[in-house]
Design goal:
Blueprint lengths: L8 E5 L4 H12 L3 E6 L7 H4 L7 E4 L5 H10 L4 E4 L6 H6 L1 H21 L5 E5 L24 H20 L3 E6 L1 E3 L9 H11 L4 E2 L6 E2 L1 E3 H17 L7 E4 L5 E2 H11 L8 E2 L15 H7 L7 H20 L21 E2 L16 E2 L35 H4 L42
Parallel strand pairs: 1-2, 1-4, 2-3, 4-5, 5-6, 6-11, 7-10, 8-13
Antiparallel strand pairs: 9-12, 14-15
Helix pairs in contact: 1-8, 3-5, 5-6, 7-9
Length: 449
């Protein structure tokens, strides 16, 4: 990555999601000063398992809390915003449309309004999706294709996309929009999605299940290419402000049917002998959805680095290690791979609020509680990277977690009215089993994703 990101103050939403975790790792390695907003604790996410939480600034709360967002943007003096957070699971959107609209639509306008009021933010990239286009006879989708989502998730992405365009046009906000196909890669533990579900079945020697008839056609876009797309778009905006308000499709432009991608995945996992079980029980799917990425190639100079086979090779390797690590004691590996257990698991945190832990949308802060064999930090200190009461970045070994007295509101492991932390005997959050989080950053339904 270029020196553009060195010491750059970057706010990433959706940090526990597949793409969010990947972006945060890339930004940290490039020397950026990253802050993420967390709502629920997702122990299986790469943000936790890969020990990234120990290396970045974490603010706890919800994306719909506009006052919190304005505080975060102001106090961390954010320069670049990458907005990925969303409720991105289609069946959940169909069952719970209001919560999906709250996260994906209201959350987006609260963020955009915070950016509008911020004197420091210079670039914002908003995550849209191929689903924002809805159903069209003419394919592939180009950026000028009308946005006409019909079902709850699709509508939420159409609205978020249009909100970004509105703020750019009306308030001259430096915001651009990224529309990606179905992301895949190591770290996605939503087993209903076609690629992780197929890999798990293959490694267990079980027949993978296709709930549709196998015919729907989609883009399958490796997460590392997605990460580079967002970063390159933000960099180009810094050089060319005229990109504000524009949308860009990102895709490897190799659409495949569900059945085709399942067979490719089985081949990559070394089990081409397994025959898919086709249930043909997924009515209402849009039959064909895929993107034209010509504009991104021409105006941004972007191109994908992975074809499906290369992406699947890396993805299968990640899941092999993941399942091995799940069946063995944690090794404490520091490589950031699946075997690496974050020392910042729920059993080592004392959190404020209602005891919900940390998450994807992510406001107030959480304090790490020392383990029995660790020296206890001083009152109001953390072993995670934070900022002191003056907003200065602290060392990795402590420093008051910034402005604690104004952020902690009580609850499990919360603070008293004076802002003092509760004792070490405060209840801890339990580590849950490795399950897919309800909200994760990505796109596509369970069958096609």
């Amino acid at each position: 990555m270029s020196s553009f990101w060195r010491d750059r103050r970057v706010f990433v939403t959706g940090g526990t999601g597949l793409l969010g975790s990947c972006l945060i790792r890339a930004l940290h390695e490039a020397g950026a000063d990253v802050v993420t907003l967390i709502r629920d604790w997702v122990p299986a996410s790469e943000l936790c398992r890969g020990r990234l939480l120990e290396k970045i600034n974490v603010v706890r709360g919800e994306l719909q809390d506009q006052a919190l967002l304005e505080r975060l943007l102001g106090e961390y003096e954010v320069q670049t915003v990458l907005h990925l957070a969303a409720q991105a699971i289609v069946p959940i959107a169909n069952r719970n449309p209001v919560s999906t609209f709250e996260s994906n639509i209201r959350g987006t306008w609260c963020l955009l309004e915070g950016v509008r009021r911020s004197p420091t933010v210079q670039q914002t990239v908003i995550a849209s999706s191929d689903k924002a286009y809805g159903d069209h006879a003419e394919l592939p989708y180009k950026e000028e294709t009308p946005l006409r989502g019909r079902h709850p998730y699709d509508v939420s992405k159409s609205c978020a996309d249009l909100l970004a365009q509105s703020y750019a046009a009306t308030f001259k906000l430096p915001v651009a929009i990224a529309r990606c196909g179905n992301l895949y890669g190591g770290g996605d533990l939503n087993w209903n999605r076609i690629i992780p579900g197929t890999i798990r079945s293959a490694l267990r020697g079980e027949r993978p299940v296709i709930r549709s008839d196998g015919a729907p056609t989609r883009d399958y876009f490796y997460v590392q290419d997605g990460s580079s797309a967002y970063l390159q778009l933000a960099e180009k905006m810094a050089k060319d402000p005229s990109l504000a308000g524009e949308a860009f499709n990102f895709s490897n432009e190799q659409p495949l049917s569900v059945l085709q991608v399942m067979r490719e995945t089985l081949r990559a996992a070394g089990r081409p002998d397994l025959e898919p079980l086709i249930q043909n029980q997924a009515p209402g799917e849009i039959l064909h959805q895929y993107l034209d990425a010509g504009k991104a190639r021409k105006k941004l100079g972007w191109k994908p680095q992975y074809n499906l086979q290369d992406g699947l090779k890396e993805t299968v390797a990640w899941y092999r290690e993941f399942f091995q690590s799940e069946s063995e004691p944690a090794t404490g590996a520091a490589s950031g791979g699946p075997a690496a257990r974050s020392s910042a698991d729920p059993s080592s945190w004392v959190c404020n609020g209602k005891g919900r832990g940390l998450s994807e949308h992510g406001g107030a802060t959480a304090r790490r509680h020392p383990r029995a064999n660790e020296p206890a930090p001083g009152r109001g200190e953390v072993t995670h990277r934070g900022r002191d009461a003056g907003g200065r970045v602290s060392s990795a070994n402590g420093g008051a977690f910034r402005r604690a007295s104004s952020l902690w509101r009580g609850g499990i492991g919360g603070a008293s009215a004076s802002g003092s932390f509760r004792s070490a005997g405060a209840p801890r959050l339990r580590r849950r089993a490795a399950v897919a989080p309800v909200s994760r950053s990505g796109s596509g339904g369970p069958e096609t994703g």
